[in-house]
Amino acid sequence: MSDGGLPHSDLASDTVARLFGAAFTVAAVLVALPLVVPVVVSRLAGDVVATKTRFWVVWRWHWVLNTAGILLVAMLVAFEMLLLVNWVQSGAAAEFVAGERWWLQLWPAAGPWAVTNLLAGVLLLPVAWSLKRRKIAELVRSRRVSNVVRQEKIETARKRAADSSVARRIGVHLESNTGRIVGTTLQATTVPLLVGAGQQAFGVTSRVTVRTLADRFYDVRRVRDWVDATGKYLVLPPASSSVRALIIAESGSGKTVLINGLVLCALEYGWPVFVIDAKGDPADAESLVAVASSYGRTASTGGVWDLFNGTADQVTAKLMRLMPVPDGANQHYLDEIRGVLQAVQDQSPIRSVEELRERLSRPAAHVRDQYDLGMVNKPVDRDGSTAGTRSLQSLLVALRPLERWIGPAGWSYNAPKTDVTVIPLSPVDDAQARLGDLLLLDLRNFMASRLERRDKSPVVVIVDEFPQLVTGAQDPGDTAGSLFETARSAGVGLVLATQSPAGLSNDEVRRRRALTSGAALIFGRSKDPEDVVKYAGTVMRMESAGRATGEELGSARAQHTFVIPPQDVREAADGAFWIVQGGAIAPFRALPNRKIHTVQPARGAAVHFVPVDDEPAEEPVSGAE
Fold it and tell me: Are 304 and 407 spatial neighbours (Cβ–Cβ below 8 Å)?
C-alpha cells in the first residue's frame, strides 16, 4: 500500500526524521536562548564598562546570586526537556510533524517557552559579569589591554572598588564622585576591634575585589607587626616598642580618626597614652576625651604640666631651651645662665618656679663650694646685680608666658594623671609653640631616663602636626629621626603626624632621615606624594606606547614604575591609607570611631559623655560604590 505514491516504510522514516529534527531544534533553541542575553550584553559592553568602579564592586554574597541564577535557568530548561520528552513519547509529536507545513506551527506551540527562555537569560547576567571581570582582570594583570589609556582607567577603577567595598563592609558611606565620608550605619564596625590572639585592630586592609588565579598564587610579603596573621586587619603591635609610625596625610583625609583609633587600641592594651595635638582645636581634644570616656577610660585635656621634672641636667636643658638661639653675640650670657643653673642644682634639681627664685636669690645652701657660690654671686652690673639675679631675670621673663600651663603638681611622662592625656596646642601662639617644643625635649629626656633605669613598661606618645612644635635652631627632620631611633630601645611607642613630607624639613638629607628612620610609614591623601610613594618601592612593569594615530598599543618596554601610583594617593578617599614597612605594603581603611554626643552640664557640673547607640541610620548614598 502507498500514500501519495510513497511506501509506508518510507513515510514512517520521513516522519521519524521530521520528529527528531523538530525535537532537536526545539531542544537546541530552548537551551541556547538563555545564553543570548548575557552573551550579547557582554559583547556590546566590551571592556569600556570595566573603567567604572561599580563594575568591579563584588557583593559578599554574589556567589549565591550566581548559583541561584544558574539553578533557576537549569530547572526551567530541565522542565522544558521533560515536557518535550513526554510530548514525543505520547505520539503527539509524531502527529504534529506528520501534518502539512508543520514547521509553521512550531512558533505558536513553542514560542511562549522560547520567549520565557530568552528573558531567563537576565538571570545569567551576574554570571556573565563575573566571567567577564575575571577575563579583564587577567588582561590587566598581564597588561594586555590594547588601549593603553583604558588600561590605567581600569586599574584605577579596581582600586576604588576595593576601597569602597571595604567601606561598605565596615558600615561607612562614601560619596562615589568625591570619596568623601558622608555617614556610617548603626551596625558600623568601630575601633577598637578585637581580632585573633587578643590584638586590637584599627583598620581593615583593602584587596582587589576580583583576583585571578595568578594573583592568588603570588607570594606577597606581609607588613610585620601592624597586620594580623590573616592579612585582613591593621592592628596595633602588642609591644609598645614596635609602635613607631610616621603619618603623612593632608587635612580632612581622616588622619584624626586614624589617630583616635590608635589611642583607643593602646588603651585596650592598658597602656598610658599621651597625645600632643598641635592643630590647636580644643573640639578635637574634647572629642577624643569623650570617645575614651565612653569606653570607660579616664581621660583629661589640657591641664598643668610639670616642667621641672627630671634630673638637674634635664631641668637645665629645658630652661636653656627658653633662651634665645645662640648667635655669637649672646653666647657669653647663655654660658653664664647655664653655669648658674648647674651650680645651684648641685644637691638636687629645681622643682618649681618658686624654688628657682629662692636658689638664684640665696644660692649659699645649694652650691657645692665657694667657687660656685662666687660664680653665682659675681657682680655683673653697677647696680649690684649678680650673675644669679641677672640669670633669674632672664629666666622669669621667658617663663612668665608659660605660667598658666606649668606647675609642680602637673602631669609628666613619668607620672600621668589619667589613662590618656590630651594636650591641645595652638602653634600660632608663641607661648604654646614654645611649650610644645619643651614637651618634645622632655620626651627625649623621658626616653633617656627609661634607658638608664632599664624601664620597658609600655607607654605611647602621639604628636599630631609635630613639625609646628619644633622651634628655634632645631630641625623637625632631625628631631623625628632622633626620637624614632631612641624610642624602640626605650620601649616607648611613638607616632608622629604631619600634613606633608615638606613639613618634615627644608633640608633633603634631614627629611630623608625622618622618612627612613625605621618607623612604619603611613600615608593618606596628599597633593605632593612623590616623596612618600618612592619608599613603597618600584616594580618592573611593561609600559606601552600608543601609535601616533590613536591610543592603540604600538610598542612596549620594561621599566621601573611606582608600586603605588602618585595619582592614587592624590585621589585617595577619606579614611583610605597605605602602610609601608620592611619592604611590604598594605592599603587599608581606618575604622570609624564610636558616635557619641556631649550632654551640656550645668555651670560647675561635670561633663558626661553619652554613647549614641540608637541614632537612626543615615540614608545610603546613591551610587556610592
Answer: yes
